Amino acid sequence: MNLKHIILGLSFTLFVNFTIKAQTSNNIVKVSGAMSNVMKKGQLQGTILLDTIQNKQHLYGLGPKEYLKGELLIIDGKSYVASVNEDGSIKTEETFDVKAPFFVYANTENWKEYTLPKKIRTLKQLEEFIDKKTKNNNRPFTFKLQGIFAKINFHIQNLPDGTIVKSPKDAHQGQGKYERENIEGEIIGFFSTEHQTVFTHHDTYIHIHFINSERTEMGHIDDLMLNGKMKIKLYLPK
């Protein structure tokens, strides 16, 4: 093999590696469907099959399960579905074979780690801190937290069959509600100031789901309390 062929081969390899890296770390947030269509128009059917998302490398995403029968979370390329058993307990399984009426997702490979200040104690304070920290960053974006959380209140959608949804109150019927204290796990979230009622509620810039370290419980966070004693790591895209 002559020098020209070697150089061409190395150039091709570098190009392929760069292309793959670019595809997995572009941090471009994509959205299917809209929360307002589900909550106000009753469009409960799936708008996206998660398995059709082609690039699953370093993939993150969240939303409800179609017909509001559970919660969905993709964390670093693994997809989890949480639903409510008849006895009220939580069922969590790993699968991409599931649809969502609205869903937000992005491929995020490179993170910058921060230690969350001890003064951050509430969900609102967390949102304000992230907003201030990322004023000069590209938005929207994925973020995550890791650690032991003092208290988490979360729900799993469990809409009764045949329910007609015309308002958020209708959509929230049947929810499984849970509270956990001093629980270790991860929080995956999406931040945007421009997607209220699309993938965040009208009064917030964040949509967040929690999953415990054992991957046995997962759901949409309604409230979060931190005590300033536990070390919480915040990860933002580089």
Task: Characterize the structure shown.
By secondary structure, this protein is of the alpha+beta class. The chain has four helices and 14 strands.
Average pLDDT score: 90
Strand order of the largest sheet: 1-8-3-4-5-6
Q: What is the H/E string?
A: HEHEEEEEEEEHEHEEEE
Rounded Rg = 19 Å
- Helical coverage, percent range: 10-25%
Low-confidence stretches: 5-25
Structural class by secondary-structure content:
alpha+beta
Outline type = globular
Main β sheet profile: 6 strands, antiparallel
How many DSSP E strands? 14
| N-end to C-end Cα span | 40 Å
Strand content: 35-45%
* Number of helical elements: 4
Short description:
With 238 residues, the protein is an alpha+beta fold. 18% of the residues lie in helices and 39% in strands.
Keywords:
238 residues, alpha+beta, 6-stranded antiparallel beta sheet, 18% helix
Q: How are the secondary structure elements laid out?
A:
Blueprint: H1 3-24, E1 30-32, H2 35-41, E2 48-49, E3 59-64, E4 71-75, E5 78-84, E6 90-94, E7 99-100, E8 103-107, E9 111-115, H3 123-133, E10 141-156, H4 168-171, E11 176-191, E12 206-212, E13 218-225, E14 233-237
Antiparallel strand pairs: 1-8, 2-7, 3-4, 3-8, 4-5, 5-6, 9-14, 10-11, 10-13, 10-14, 11-12, 12-13
